[in-house]
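Example 3.2
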Amino acid sequence: MTPSGEAGLRRICAVIDLLLDADEEETLLPVLHPLLLRALPGDSLTWAVRTPAGRHPVHLPRDLLDAEALAAFYRHAGSDPLFVHTNTGPGVPLRRSDLQSRTEFHRSGTYAEALRPIGAEYQLATAFPAGWAAGGRRTVCLVVHRSASDFADADLETALLLRTRLSHALGRLAPPPVPLRSALTVREAAVLDLLAEGLTDRQIGRRLAVSARTVDKHLEHAYAKLQVHSRVAAAARWRGQNALDQQVKSIR
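Structure, written as tokens:
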């Protein structure tokens, strides 16, 4: 192995060692991001977490993209092939040059309004599952930016290696939520199932062969466990929980 190859391997191992030792994501990321920029040499980095609630990008350096540039990036995102690849595609590591020519890139709104000002002439991007957030699955998109030269095939191989480890580590740090059903009695869950279908207390009582007063008492206990205060909120929370339970089951 060449000296440069040995140095690259040491940088990759440093990232993997950090991931193996990590026990808290909040303290992991500030240390991880600089190491990723060493393993995948670049001028800057974007780490964007996507959850059901939206996207949460973090940059290194932190002031890489201001609010105006970030808004411009998302404004053109639908026509940006690299963004589409990481957002709805397979997310395997790719260079921008694998998807569009430099001429096409330089003519794009993404380049003119967001990437040219930060000197991002070349990019390597990948996306991967990253555990769970409130409401569903999380995905992380990692983008490394360069100004002087394109990424080599060896960089793609490094990104592919790290992608698997990153996904595994973040999945471990953000496991699936404990099913809410485990906090409810069987009868409370049955009442909520029917409530989510739009049935009244009287209709639920007839279905379960209990009185409307008993249904109301079950709902009172369920409200406290769901941390809601109304029928509408309870039904919405329960439907959302059922959808989340299905997502969890689908990957087990």
